[in-house]
Amino acid sequence: MIALWKNPELIRNCRAQLRPRRLVLVGSIVAVLSVVIGYSMSQAQAATMIWGDQFLTVALYAQVMTLFIGGGLACGRSISQEREQNTFDFQRVTQLTSLELALGKLFGAPAISYFATFCIFPAALMGAAYAHVPFGNLLCGYVMLFGGAIAFHCFALLLSMNTTRSIGGITGASSAVMLLLVFLMTSVPDATRLSLDLGALGPLAAIDFARHGTWQVIASPDHGLGLRSGTAWTDVFFGVPLHHFPVLMVLYATAAAWCLLALARNLKRDQSLSELFSPVQSVGLLCYLNFIIVGSYMIGGGESFFEGAYRSVRTLSSAFQFFLIVNLGLLYMLGLVLLRNREQARRRAHQRAGNGFDWQEAAWPALYILAGAGCAAALALVRLARPGGVTNDLDAGFCVFTCVILLATMLRDLCFLQWMNLRRAKNPLTLGVILLGVFYTCGSILLVMARFSKPVQTVFMAIIAPWGLAGADAAERSQWSHAPGPWMIGLGVQVALVVYFAALHYKLADELRPARAAIPARAPATGD
Amino acid sequence: MIHLEHLTKEYDMPGGKAGKLVAANAIDLVVPKGEIFGLIGPNGAGKTTTLKMICGLLAPTAGRVTVHGVDVERYPEDAQRHLGYLADFFSVYDDLTVWEYVDYFAHAYKMDESSISRRVDEVIRLVGLEAKYDSFIAGLSRGMKQRLGIARAILHSPPLLVLDEPTSGLDPKARHELKQLLLSLNRAGATLFITTHILSDVEEICTSVAILEKGVLLRCGPLRAVMQEARGGRRFRLRLAVPGFALTQWLTAQPGVSEVKAGVQDAEFLLAGDDARTAELVGQIVSAGAPVCSFQDASENLEQLYSRLSSGETM
Fold first, then answer.
1. Chain A touched by B246 (CB under 8 Å)
2. In the beta sheet, which residues pair with residue A303?
3. Which of A44, A134, A406, B117 is deepest in the core (most CB within 10 A)?
4. B312 torsion bin: left (phi>0), alpha (psi -120 to 50), beta (else)
5. Does some domain include residue B306?
């Protein structure tokens, strides 16, 4: 592994971007703007502490924008642009490993953004000095800022790697910027509690901490991860209060590590065979996300953003519903990541030529979805085993049935999408997602318009979209207990549909196998 | 040096049509060390696909490629250590200088740090770009950029050079210089694997050749053997000073002579056998009293052979 400062890709980017004339230009612009803004602020506000704080805030915001938008754009284009220029293949045949190449691009592509950020430092330091901001706070704020930027740049790089050549660098970059905007918007203080929950994870948390951060950890906080109360910076993980700074740094580091893992797996690979994570790694990522969510989830005294509004989590059924909804989303993403394209299926077909029926191949990626669901359920059960003064209103039978039917519905959708993804079309997966959307929309309209009698309506709902079960209230749960028959019919149909789509997928995959008798070459095949 | 085993690459037919496009159809091929191997074929024959699979840039649908005994798909970086690659349509980093560009790749190939500076200078001199040492690449001509590409490919002294259309788009002088450079690299021990449309280049510098069409190898082997095998002998044209000798009758009676097309004073025929047999036939016809004033080799060149063998169909 080459040391980062000797990384040729980093050096190339620095050489290309940090030419003396450009450095002088950027430095001059930043210096002029700093002087003008600082002077106007000092004139408008007599109290040095107040204008110092304002000046610091402006400088920090400028650094956030430069690093996140400028750097994000640079990383978001770095790989896709090289593909378009036909220079990427030459990097792929060098001795640089995927990780070395990724690290070189990660720190090299935004070189000019880093330089501009450093140019703003004097202004920020001056503001901090006038505002009497403790040096430790400022330092930690910057550590948070750079940590967040690196994690975000990793994500932008990942987007760039997965951007198809025909679309160009625009998609990767615009996606990165869009994500940043969401990130920034949700970071705005005084927004909803949901926004605040995410806000502590966004880049603006660094600004808040630099200006008003404290090192005090509240012994009995009344909030979960990311929900700040007042000036306290305390998170709770598995019941243990922790300062937000180390938690945030660990989250940034792990997020960057997952992105780098995907980059190291795929960067130098043939793009048509790109596979973000191996199946086992995908399940690992699901477990990691569950670990964070389960660990920071508060039962008994906190608040949840479940059902679109905040309410106290006082019952086990609420906690169950929360974990269920979160995991349905995560498992769906896991399934989408694992779907095979035609090229991957063709290679598998050639490798398996002559072999008999394989149910794992047919039902791909069902096995890993089930494994992921098992791991997520185990993690949730560990957490729910220590409820701490919460009313146990769980109906075990209902919970198990809900999990089974929703899992079957998800597998139905994923097997359908896997079948669609092997069809001969320009964007088969997109077409599959659109068809699925049409199916859900039409089914829901029919359900509302048709005015079926109760058992028929239940069967219909259980077949089309049983997702409503995840948010079922007490009345619906008791209804299920009294008449499970229609739901069982629905479950049976879901399983049958899984088998049907798996069979369609297998048939299509089978067509990609090589012909029974290979065509012999017409020439002697040697250059001797 | 290169070993292709049952190498297959399949794609979907473009435009959503039924069937599959086989860019490489179970190709088995061995390229020994020290060869200059030319892979020829029409556009869309699968040349670049095959070449990219050799370099580990494309994964084959089935089959195996080994370079210098290393499995390219399993150990791409180990295999790539032994090869230098030049693409047919390539671009370079316009915002770097010539020296910076070559230096970047020297480090990226993880060459010995102490030898990099000397090797960078040496390679820039070798491709004749020493006058442009500190110039930005953006200002170079296409020919110069091609030479820079060659510099990058040979920088780490790989035993195998894989070049896709190296002479295309160059003016005659640049083409000649590039061919001389390739020959000198071969003399220095490098194996060259070249794809090209310019068949005269292949005839001029290649020692072995393969003809690829629709992913299938039509012919493969040493250049002379391929040409001789394809035409079943050498074609000669003979001319008499004065008419009167029964050319058709005499020639058809000779062993190894076929496809005789004779006029009153001249004839064209195919002769199986080597140079000794040719000399023997010339001696015999003169001894028989034929007033021979001209005897010349009228064998078809690679271009004619290629036209005859290839249907010119593309995928």
1. no
2. A312
3. A406
4. left
5. no
Distance (Å, rounded) from C-alpha B243 to C-alpha A202?
Answer: 99
The answer for residues whose C-beta is within 8 angstroms of residue A140's C-beta and 6 or more apart is: A209, A210, A213, A245
**Full-model pTM:** 0.83
| Cβ proximity of B185 and B86 under 8 Å | no
Closest residue in A to B230 (Cα–Cα): A523
In chain B, the number of structural domains is 2
Interface subset of B 30-49, CB within 8 angstroms of A: 30-32, 35, 37
Give yes or no for a contact between B166 and B178, defined as CB atoms under 8 angstroms apart: yes
Complex ipTM: 0.82
Segment A75-100, tens digit of pLDDT: 988 998 888 888 999 999 999 999 99
Domain hosting B111: range is: 2-228
User: What residues in chain B have per-residue pLDDT under 50?
Assistant: 314-315
* Partner B contacted by A265 (CB < 8 A): no
Judging contacts by C-beta atoms under 8 Å, the chain A residues touching residue B10 are 346
Q: Which of B228, B245, B263 is the last residue of a domain?
A: B228
B221 φ, ψ (degrees, to nearest 5): 150, -175
pLDDT at position B276: 84
Distance CA A383, CA A327 (A): 15
Q: How buried is A433 (Cβ within 10 angstroms: 0-12 exposed, 13-18 middle, 19+ buried)?
A: middle
Give chain B positions within 8 Å (CB) of A269: 59
CB contact under 8 A, A12 and B10: no
Flag whether residue A340 sits within 8 Å of chain B, measured between CB atoms: no
Q: What is the pLDDT of residue A526?
A: 45
Scanning B70-109 for CB atoms below 8 A from A yields: 76-77, 80-81, 83, 85, 87, 89-93, 95-96, 100, 104-105, 107-109
Cβ of A86 and B90 within 8 Å?
A: yes
Q: Per the omega criterion (within 30 degrees of 0), is the bond before A134 cis?
A: no
Q: Verify whether the Cβ–Cβ distance A351 to B85 is below 8 Å.
A: no
Nearest CA in chain B to A518: B26
Of A249, A289, A282, whose CA–CA distance to A150 is shortest?
A: A249
Q: Is residue B304 assigned to a domain?
A: no
Looking at residues A186-205, what average pLDDT do you find? 52
Quote the CA–CA distance of B264 and A218 in Å, as a whole number: 115
- Kindly state whether A426 is in contact with chain B, defined as any CB-CB distance less than 8 angstroms: yes
**Does residue B16 belong to the interface with chain A, where contact is any CB pair within 8 Å?**
yes
**Contact B142/A at CB under 8 A:** no
Residue A64 near residue A205, CB atoms below 8 Å: no
User: Is there a domain that residue B73 lies in?
Assistant: yes
CA angle (A378, A415, A497) in 5-degree steps:
95
What are the structure tokens assigned to A519, written together?
A: 């065509």
